[in-house]
Every structure is written in C-alpha cells, then in structure tokens.
Design goal:
Blueprint: H1 2-10, E1 13-18, H2 44-47, H3 50-55, H4 57-67, H5 80-90, E2 94-99, H6 105-109, E3 114-116, E4 123-125, E5 132-134, H7 135-140, E6 156-157, H8 169-178, E7 181-185, H9 196-201, E8 208-213, E9 225-228, H10 231-239
Parallel strand pairs: 1-2, 1-7, 2-3, 7-8, 8-9
Antiparallel strand pairs: 4-5, 4-6
The structure holds nicotinamide-adenine-dinucleotide.
Nicotinamide-adenine-dinucleotide (NAD) binds near residues 21, 31, 32, 215 and 230.
C-alpha cells in the first residue's frame, strides 16, 4: 500500500483500465470470479454475441436484460473505487479511464475522461435509422423497438457484443504511452484484446504498472506491483 501511494502521488498522467471487478462492491456481479455470473451458465458467451442478436433478436433481448440486470441498473451507485479515480482527477492529475464495464458507473461518479471500450447498457440504437434510445425506453418494452413509427426495427444495444469491434483501442494505447502510471483494476485480463495491453507495455521504463484485483491473474508477473484485494476497500484505505 505504501508503494502504491507513492506511485500515485508521483504520477501526473494516469491511464486506468477497469473491469467488472471494480463494480462488484456496487452490487453488480462480475463474470469470471468464483462467485461471478460466468460459472452459472457458460452459454452466456454465445448469447451476448453479434451472431445470436442477428439470428434471434427477440430471445437475445430477453437474455441480455437478464444477464446485465437491466431493470436494476438505475439503482447501482459508484463505490469508493470509482470515487477515488474521480478524486485523483479533482486533485489535479490527468486521469483517463478505459473501462470494459458497461454499467456507466465511472460517469455517475463524475470522472471526466471515460472511454467505454465495450459500450454501455444505458443506450440502444436502431440498426435501420440510427435513432438512439435511453434505458428508460428500453425498460418499457420486453423487446425494444425503434420509436420511429415508420421504422419499428428491433433496437441493438450499445454494448459491444462478442463478434463486434472493441472501441477506443487506439486512444488507449496513445494514452498509456503518454502516462507515468498504468493502473489496472478489477479485471481477470482474460478477454482479448484487452489482455494484450499490459504485455505490450511491460518493458516501458518510464511507466509504472499496477494491478489491483481480488484474485491472481495469469498476467500478474507482468506488473511492477500487484495487490490482491477488493478495489473499493483498497481505495478507502488509500483515501484515509
Ligand atoms: P471478469 O469477470 O472476467 O473479471 C473480474 C475480475 O475482478 C476477477 O478476476 C475478480 O477476481 C476481480 N474482482 C471481483 N471483485 C473485485 C473487487 N471488489 N476488487 C478487485 N477485483 C475484483 O471481468 P472483466 O475482465 O471486466 O471481463 C468481463 C466482461 O464482462 C467485460 O467485457 C465486461 O464488459 C463485462 N461485464 C461488465 C460488467 C459491468 O459493467 N459491471 C459486469 C459483468 C461483466
């Protein structure tokens, strides 16, 4: 913790990569840890794919809403982990957050530079006319259709599905190249292409790399500092 504190206080520009783990203390289960959603039903990976959406859009929406607990999403609040990142920004550091999460909690915490690599559950757009619809509208219907009378197409969630392109990847590489600290929080680093990122920067001498994760990952040896623990609790201890 002393080393983490020193690395953070020395850093001016911090790139952060977050995953589902940062939001578990807000009540949203992750996918891969021992109690995560993934182990309940592995076929989820097939369901939240572009291919499934195109073949079975109605069933897709049923499962999608279920997996991401869409009905509850208004009630989730940022926890100390999200808030610490906002606080670092407020203290004058240039903090750029690249998140694999789709829950919108970094925005809700008030962070200014948030890049959602996997999109957001808060929006869905019409594949035909492009009209964007917000979560409130999505929740009103079992299978949400475009509100444009002439269109009425089944909406596609803003979330990046398996088979879709991950977003903001170039911006992330550019940002990490300019940073003195790369902070990776709450991710199993199993999902490609994100798992490649720490590998690509491991030999950059001017960059400190820190991983905070509840469980060990296969990439632990690549980092300068690894803390196994809950990010919310660690953030609270740091803030104190
Ligand atoms: P993951 O489920 O693969 O891994 C989460 C990691 O976080 C695990 O290694 C676990 O040990 C760790 N973890 C759990 N609680 C933690 C805590 N309190 N503090 C620190 N670490 C903790 O998640 P991933 O690597 O982000 O990949 C999963 C994919 O699923 C992503 O693409 C993401 O879009 C999606 N997803 C998003 C959410 C969300 O938006 N909140 C939730 C579930 C899944």
């Amino acid at each position: 913790m002393r080393k983490l504190k020193a690395m953070i206080s020395e850093a001016k520009t911090i790139s952060v990569l977050t995953g589902a783990g940062i939001s578990t203390e807000s009540g949203i289960p992750d996918f891969r840890s021992t109690k995560g959603l993934w182990r309940e039903d592995v076929s989820r990976m097939d369901v939240i794919s572009r291919d499934y959406f195109e073949r079975e859009p109605e069933l897709f929406w049923k499962y999608f809403k279920d997996i991401f607990q869409i009905k509850l999403s208004h009630s989730y609040e940022p926890n100390s982990g999200h808030l610490l990142l906002k606080e670092l920004e407020r203290s004058g550091k240039d903090v750029r957050i690249f998140t694999q999460n789709v829950d919108g909690l970094h925005h809700k915490a008030g962070s200014g530079k948030v890049y959602e690599l996997h999109g957001s559950i808060l929006f869905a757009a019409c594949p035909e006319c492009g009209k964007e619809h917000h979560l409130d509208y999505i929740n009103e219907q079992i299978v949400p259709l475009c509100s444009d009378e002439a269109c009425q197409q089944i909406l596609k969630p803003d979330v990046v599905l398996f088979g879709d392109m991950v977003r903001c990847f170039e911006e992330m590489y550019e940002s990490i190249s300019e940073s003195d600290l790369f902070l990776v929080i709450g991710t199993s680093l199993e999902v490609f292409p994100v798992r490649q990122v720490p590998l690509d920067f491991r030999h950059k001498a001017t960059l400190g790399m820190v991983l905070i994760n509840a469980e060990p990952t296969r990439l632990d040896p690549v980092f300068d500092l690894v803390i196994h623990g809950k990010s919310g609790a660690i953030a609270k201890a740091l803030a104190e």
